[in-house]
Amino acid sequence: GDRMWHFAVSVFLVELYGNSLLLTAVYGLVVAGSVLLLGALIGDWVDKNSRLKVAQTSLIVQNSSVILCGIILMIIFLFKTQLLTLYHGWLLTLCYILVITIANIANLASTATAITIQRDWIVVVAGEDRSKLADMNATIRRIDQLTNILAPMAVGQIMTFGSPMIGCGFISGWNLMSMCVEYLLLWKVYQKTPTLARKSAKVEASELKQLNAKKESDTKPAEGVQLIIEKDVTGFEPQEEKEVGCAARIAEPFITFRDGWVAYYNQPVFLAGMGLAFLYMTVLGFDCITTGYAYTQGLSGSVLSLLMGASAVTGIMGTVAFTWLRRKCGLIRTGLISGVAQLACLILCVVSVFMPGSPMDLTVSPFADISARLFENEPLPTIASPEPEMIFATGMPNMLNGSIDPANSDPEMSPEPVPLISVSLLFAGVIAARVGLWSFDLTVTQLLQENVIESERGIINGVQNSMNYLLDLLHFIMVILAPNPEAFGLLVLISVSFVAMGHIMYFRFAQKSLGKQLFVCHTPDPKAAADSSPPGNTSTV
Q1: What is the DSSP string of 461-530?
Q2: Membrane spanning segments where (predicted)?
């Protein structure tokens, strides 16, 4: 249901606003800004409440918001002409604002669900078995990849052979049904895992020791746990004083925001998390930007759908590679190998920039298009109605120059066919790099799971989500500033540079954690790792 909604909401917004991407752009910016600002607060809320309450509340809020949004969209589709005439169209504008606001609430609730289930529950269910934790992470990612393929296909077919209104009704009904099923499944998991009911400082100490294979005599982790205990005590004692001071209540979210980012910076896996975030600063993914560029190069929607399917297959291969590499070389080395594999595949993307068919032209200013729009009052291009199979929703607009759409060109003045060597190499590199990308993503995910203590899992992962959204937002701003196809090759080079910087950060983390043993690839022995682990080193070998 969540994947269906993420795919469909942007399509619905395009349909509502006369095939313009304005509402989709606003929605994407609101979503990214909200998670960036509220990620730490959401994580702090996850930490301060019981696991079952957090999971149930976020699940109900998420699905209820989607259901309500679907109902409002159905009403808008039914009575759009009447709403346009009421109050000079302001009522329709209010409906648009309401839809984007509720959809944003659904996304925030989805973020809370992902943090509590994928970053907390799964760690407790796996216990001290790291191999089980790795297998569970990989399985969840495979399911995620499959739903990324199946959900858009299902919604796309319904909207193609039915209508957007039928699609809204189907998604609302599906989320209502899935909410009940998910609620029951969460309750069963909670009942079968008694440790999920305990969320205290004592559990934090024992769990930290189990996950990192530490001894009872280690001093630094004990100090960290002692700090958390003191923090909890001071957090619960002065409840009455907090209720008296209104200024303290107002300042509390800002203090939580600051403390969350400071705690994230002080984590031993900070560089690994930053490395993952830097991978979001890229146009080398199957989002609307790369899709739009592919259209300018002559690829059809059917070809792109096949390429998306191939990328999902290589993503699943990445999850398989992760579990195999982790068993053979250890967790930290798996991230290093995955990074090298990803960068090696992205060399094809760099080569594609200089191959025949590449529109890259350094004589054209990357900012020529945006400056023409702003300073010469040139009208914005209109977007032709996309075919159903050509829609790939990501919550952000296609920033490429719409004037090069082959559908709008005059058949008598059609340009010569563009050589496909450049775009073929580009997508070959993007698809092949998914193996290393998803293996690296799973590596950093498990490092965060194993090295962040229980009382801070929520807020640390919330800040990690904020970092991811920040870099993702920066990459869209980069495209807004240089939207013409002639500048896309430059964006590719910048993207590969940021990916390289992310893996350099991870290499530095790996070097600090393993030292001279970094390049000694061997099958890790948990017992040996526990005996040889130096005091205060919470990294996983």
Answers
A1: HHHHHHHHHHHHHHHHHHHHHS-SGGGHHHHHHHHHHHHHHHHHHHHHHHHHHHGGGGG------HHHHH
A2: 20-46, 58-79, 85-109, 269-295, 301-324, 336-355, 418-437, 458-481, 487-507
Instruction: Enter the tokens of residue 16.
Output: 């509502």
DSSP labels for 243-259?
A: HH-HHHHHHHHHHHHHH
Distance CA 361, CA 488 (A): 9
If asked whether residues 174 and 306 sit together in one domain, one would say: no
Indicate whether 530 belongs to any domain.
Answer: no
Q: Are residues 171 and 298 in the same domain?
A: no
The answer on 510 and 361 residing in a single domain is: yes
User: Residue 236 domain-assigned?
Assistant: no
Task: Tell me: do 427 and 322 sit in the same domain.
Answer: yes
State pLDDT tens for residues 462-502. Answer: 899 899 989 988 887 887 777 777 788 888 999 999 999 99
- Mean per-residue pLDDT for 411-435? 77
Q: Name the 3-class secondary structure at 399.
A: coil
Q: Which residues are within 8 A (CB) of 200 and not within 5 positions of it... i.e. 6 or more apart?
A: none
pLDDT in tens, 303-343: 777 888 788 889 899 999 999 999 888 889 999 999 999 99
Q: Which of 199, 212, 186, 15 has the alpha carbon at shortest distance from 124?
A: 199
* 437 residue type, one letter: L
| Structure-block tokens of residue 462 | 């919330």
Where does a domain end: 174, 198, 222? Answer: 198
What DSSP designation does 394 have? Answer: -
Residues 161 and 300 in one domain: no
**Are 357 and 462 found together in one domain?**
yes
pLDDT tens digits along 51-90: 889 999 999 999 999 999 888 888 888 877 777 777 776 7
Q: Which helix (H) or strand (E) covers residue 427, if one does?
A: helix 421-451
| 387 has pLDDT over 80 | no
Q: What is the distance of C-alpha 224 from the center of its chain?
A: 30
Domain that holds residue 64: 1-198
- For the chain, the domain total comes to 2
In a domain, 431, yes or no: yes
Question: What CATH number does residue 508 fall under?
Answer: 1.20.1250.20
Q: What is the C-alpha radius of gyration for the chain, rounded to an integer number of angstroms? A: 25
Among 177, 198, 219, where does a domain finish?
Answer: 198
Q: Decide: helix, strand or coil at residue 280.
A: coil
Prediction pTM value = 0.72
Q: Are 336 and 434 in contact (CB under 8 A)?
A: no
The three-point CA angle 427-433-434 to 5° equals 100
Query: Is 403 a member of any domain?
Result: no
How far apart CA 273 and CA 270 sit, in angstroms, is 5
Whether residues 155 and 35 fall in one domain: yes
